[in-house]
Specification:
235 residues; alpha/beta; Rossmann fold; six-stranded mixed sheet; four-stranded antiparallel sheet
């Protein structure tokens, strides 16, 4: 199983109880190989973010099991989940969550100061093409540049996995392509296992593997025999 990054068996998540209970996940079975870029597609409310939050150690399943490599995530207590997130996972969300009073370089340095074997902030920013903008504040950066700072911050601790929840959701098409190019570059150059959650069906074309989700279940999966570059994607 060393080449498998994530594995889930009959994973469920229920919010609330009784008649008002919301079944966000309904028995998810999943296997994601290490080093791949995967895209998880589904409409709003299909369970995509809930699944990512459990894989990322941000939430707990109601039942079933989930593993990251040989670590059973569903068996960890809070301290174990915190250590797992710190040591193995980088997150990229739709909204950038940058500290407005810090420069791009300083925002990335926040992560490198608490990591075991981090990149220099300058190296992380170089990998997303932002060296010329590293001493600018978020208010001086475009939306796409801010998202690339967020990506640099996520990869600076050299995570095994990059989990991206709607990373282009707040961006126009051309800016979104620039962000996807940065994510593809990280996957290609560093071999970082990457999962992109999106409702944008066009983005699936850049992935190795595409998962389709509906009503809390993975309903289909396909392998892309012919991936395209982000610049060939439009929406």
């Amino acid at each position: 199983m060393s080449n498998i990054a994530y594995r889930c068996e009959k994973l469920t998540k229920v919010y609330g109880s009784g008649e008002t209970a919301v079944h966000a996940l309904r028995g998810v079975d999943l296997s994601l190989p290490s080093g791949e870029m995967s895209v998880l597609l589904g409409h709003s409310g299909s369970g995509k973010s809930t699944l990512m939050n459990i894989l990322g150690g941000l939430d707990r399943a109601s039942s079933g099991k989930a593993w990251f490599k040989d670590i059973e995530l569903t068996g960890l207590k809070e301290r174990g989940l915190t250590r797992y997130r710190r040591d193995h996972v980088g997150f990229v969300f739709q909204f950038y969550n940058l500290v407005p009073s810090l420069t791009a370089r300083e925002n990335v340095a926040l992560v490198t100061e608490i990591s075991k074997n981090p990149m220099r902030p300058e190296e992380a920013l170089e990998r997303v093409g932002l060296v010329p903008r590293m001493d600018h504040f978020p208010s001086q950066l475009s939306g796409g540049e801010q998202q690339r700072v967020a990506i640099a911050r996520a990869i600076a601790k050299r995570p095994n996995v990059l989990l991206c929840d709607e990373p282009t959701g707040a961006l126009d098409s051309q800016t979104g392509i620039t962000v996807l190019e940065a994510l593809t570059h990280i996957n290609d150059e560093l071999g970082t296992t990457t999962l992109i959650i999106t409702h944008n069906v066009e983005i699936q074309r850049i992935a190795h593997r595409v998962l389709f989700m509906a009503d809390g279940q993975i309903i289909d999966e396909k392998i892309n025999k012919h991936r395209v570059r982000p610049s060939e994607v439009s929406w």
